[in-house]
Design goal:
This protein is of the alpha+beta class and 184 residues long. The chain has helices spanning 22-29, 86-93, 103-117, 125-131, 143-159, 171-183; strands at residues 2-7, 10-15, 48-51, 54-57, 70-72.
Length: 184
């Protein structure tokens, strides 16, 4: 069957067998070997990619079921100029990438969490650990990964645009104008 996907922002067209797994297409068909194969049963999380913005285990997704969708792999997760993303840098700083085999899947899964909380409240440690339940790591003990996510979430919140309220972009101006209205 003929399949069209957008992978890391680029359109891809190819023929796929009905039983072909997305991880096979990404690794073998498109040469995107950053997506790892660990268990082939959806247990380890090394194959996590984003499909239409949601993290999925690509060893459990048929390529045909992703047709017409947008797939993001670890190869597409770099900042402008090739620098690390905020999450990748935070994991590096907190030593959350020890052997590195699980790192691509973790970055793809945890990137969704960081993005989802960028403008709001940071996830708690138990929430981060719950998010990690689908990703196995034998090296880090997860402590350094949790610290990396907390660091990345803090940085994302600091960079998030301030919500504009009543036409005023500066939150300090809102407090000042409210206080000025109470004085008179």
């Amino acid at each position: 069957m003929d399949i069209t996907l957008k992978v890391n922002g680029r359109p891809e067209q190819f023929s796929a067998q009905p039983n072909e797994l997305l991880v096979e297409r990404l690794r073998d068909g498109l040469g995107l070997t950053g997506t790892k194969v660990g268990c082939d049963t959806g247990q380890c999380g090394t194959c996590v990619v984003r499909l239409d913005g949601r993290s999925v285990k690509s060893c459990l997704v048929l390529t045909a079921s992703a047709a017409g969708g947008e797939v993001a792999t670890i190869e597409g997760e770099t900042g402008r100029g090739g620098e690390l993303t905020g999450l990748q840098e935070a994991l590096r700083q907190e030593h959350g990438t020890q052997c590195g085999f699980c790192t691509p899947g973790m970055v793809m899964a945890l990137g969704e969490l960081v993005d989802a909380t960028a403008g709001g409240e940071a996830p708690t440690e138990p929430e981060i650990r719950e998010w990690l339940t689908g990703n196995l790591c034998r090296c880090t003990g997860y402590h350094s990964v949790v610290r990396g996510v907390q660091r990345a979430c803090a940085a994302a919140r600091a960079e998030a645009p301030v919500a504009v309220s009543a036409g005023v972009a500066d939150p300090g101006a809102v407090a000042t104008s409210t206080a000025a209205g109470q004085e008179g």
